[in-house]
Design a protein that fits this description.
Distance between the termini: 22 Å
Shape: elongated
Structural class: alpha+beta
Number of domains: 1
Helix content: 40-55%
Order of helices and strands: EHHEEHEH
Largest sheet: 4 strands, antiparallel
Oligomer: single chain
Radius of gyration: 15 Å
Length: about 100
Amino acid sequence: MRMMLKFTLPVEKGNQAFKDGSLGKTLESLTKKLKPEAAYFGPSNGKRSGMMFFDLAEPSQIVEIAEPLFSNLNAEVEIVPVMNGDDLRKGLAKAG
């Protein structure tokens, strides 16, 4: 199932992680694991944040996806199912 991972880092922890290199290492590791179809990074509400769109094969993966963000970066994490345009058209056709 296509999912959106959205994360936000607290400023102080983000600064520390940037300086000690753990920010780059954690995000690179996560990107290699998820192989996202798209990934975007930038400021949101004055904090470092990012979004990745990826395929979730099974719910147990949520732990291995979120835990490094929690433990390494003190991130706020949100994982939600999403659709692309084709998925939406298909759903609308079935619902109608």
